[in-house]
Amino acid sequence: MPLLVELVSPERVAYTGEAKMVICRTTTGDIAFLPGHVPFIGVLATHPVRVLLEDGGEQIIAVHQGFVEVSPPEDGTTRVTILSDVCELSETIEVARAQQAKSAAESALASDSEDVEAAAALRRANVRLSVANA
Amino acid sequence: MPGAQERVLRRRIASVQNTKKITRAMELIAATRVVKAQVRANEARPYSERITEVIQDLAAAGADADHPLLRPIEKVEKIGVLVLSGDRGLAGAYNTNVIRAAEQEIQDARSKGLDYSLVTVGRKAEGYFRFRNFDIDASFSGFTDRPTYEEAVAIAARVTDMFVNGGCDRIDLAYTRFVTLGTQEVVVRRFLPLESEETIASAGDAGATAGFEFEPSANAVLESLLPRYIESRIYAALLDAAASELANRQRAMKSATDNAQELIIKYTRKMNQVRQEAITTEIMEIISGAEALADDKSGPEDLLLDHLSADPFPNVLDRRTQHSNHETPRT
C-alpha cells in the first residue's frame, strides 16, 4: 500500500501523488514516513522534502516551514499532508532569482550578522538552490 | 425651432449608448473574474480544511488550550472591528452594506460605553470611516478584487497584535459571504478569540483514539499552528469578499446596461415623436401657406394676373400674327 502525499499551500493544492516514502526535517530532526506510520503531527523546518515515488523516481520539494500530518490510515492508505505557506516543486524554482536572493542575503548578513530576516532569507535561498540542483 | 429638441435627444441617445457600452464591458469583465475568484476560493479550501483538522486532532489529543489567542472573553472593554470592503465602487450596494454593518457594530459598542479599534480593508471603507472621523488603526487596500496570501498574513499580523497587545478583548470580522452567484450576505462574526470549545467539541473522538505523535510537542505545534490558522481564515474571508464584490459588480453593471437600453428606447421614441411633430408642423405650414394663397385666389379677384386682363400679352400675340401674315405670301 503506497503513501498518499498531498502538498497543500494556502492558495492551492500544489502536489498530490503516491509515494513509497517521504523524508522531511522537523524542528527536532529528520524523519521518514513509510506506509502504516503512526498518526503524527510535526513542525517542519526550512528544508527540502524528499518524496520517493513508486516508480523509483524522486520528487524534491522546497518547503519553507509548515506542518506535516500523517493521518490515521483509512482503507489501508496512509495519508501524508504537508501544509506550508511557501512550497515549491523543483521544476518551478527560478535558479537565477534564488541565487540573487542568496547573494543579497549574504551581503546583508555581512554588514549585520544579527539580521534574523536575512538569515531566514539565506536559508530559504539555499534550500531552493539545493532543490533546483538535485 | 423644432429641430433643436430633436438634436438634443439625438445627442443624449449617443451618450447613453456610450455608457451602455462601458457598463456592458464592465459586466463581462466582472463575469469572467467572478468565476476566477470562485476557483481561487475553492483552491484555497483544502488548506483551511486541513489546518482545521490538525487543530481538531491537537485539541482531541489534549493540547493545552492556554494560548493568548484562545483566552476566553472575561470582560469586554474594547472591541476590534475588521471590515472587508472593496477598493472600487460601481458594485451596487456591496460596499455600502458591509460598511453599514461595521458602523452598526461600532455604534453598538459605543452606546455600551466600549472603546473600539478599527481596521479597514479596501479603499471604500477607509474613505467612509475617515470622512466620518472614526479612528482607523490600520488600513489595507489595493488588492480587494484579487487578494494574495501575503496580504492575509499582513492583516492577520496586525489583528493578532491588536488582540494580544492592543487591549482588544474581542475582534469582530465584517465581510460579505459568497453564497451563490445570486446571493451574497453581509455577516459580522466573532473572529478572535478563537472558539476553542467549539473546535474541541466538533473534533469528536477520532483524534483521541488515533493516538497522535507530536514533534516537538502538542503545545509547540499548536502554538505555531494558530497564527497560520488565523491567516488562512482571513485569507478565506478575503477571497469570499472578492468573489462577492465581483458578483455584485456584475449584477450592478447588468442592471445599468439594461437601464441604458431602456433609456435609449425611451429617448428614441421621444425623438421620433418630436421629429414627426416637426414634420407635421412643417407640412401644416406649407399647406396653410398654400391654402392662404388659394384663398386669396378665390377672394378679391383683381389681384391675380389673369384677372387683370383676359389676354396677358395681347400686343405680343398681335405682333406674331402680323408677322406670320407677312411671311405667308413668301412660301
TrEMBL record, chain A:
Domain ATP synthase F1 complex delta/epsilon subunit N-terminal: residue ranges: 5-85
Chief location bin: membrane
Single GO MF annotation: proton-transporting ATP synthase activity, rotational mechanism
Compartment(s) of residence: Membrane
Matching Pfam families: ATP-synt_DE (PF00401), ATP-synt_DE_N (PF02823)
Keywords of the record: ATP synthesis, CF(1), Ion transport, Membrane, Transport
Protein name in UniProt: Unannotated protein
Segments forming domain ATP synthase epsilon subunit C-terminal: 91-132
Transport among keywords: yes
GO CC list: proton-transporting ATP synthase complex
Membrane-protein topology: Peripheral membrane protein
Family of this protein: Belongs to the ATPase epsilon chain family.
From TrEMBL, chain B:
Protein name: Unannotated protein
Lineage: unclassified sequences, metagenomes, ecological metagenomes
HAMAP family found in the cross-reference section: ATP_synth_gamma_bact (MF_00815)
Family of the protein in this entry: Belongs to the ATPase gamma chain family.
Coiled-coil residue spans: 239-277
UniProt xrefs under NCBIfam families: ATPsyn_F1gamma, PRK05621.1-2
PROSITE patterns: ATPASE_GAMMA (PS00153)
One MF annotation (Gene Ontology) recorded for this entry: proton-transporting ATP synthase activity, rotational mechanism
Species per Swiss-Prot/TrEMBL record: freshwater metagenome
Membrane topology category: Peripheral membrane protein
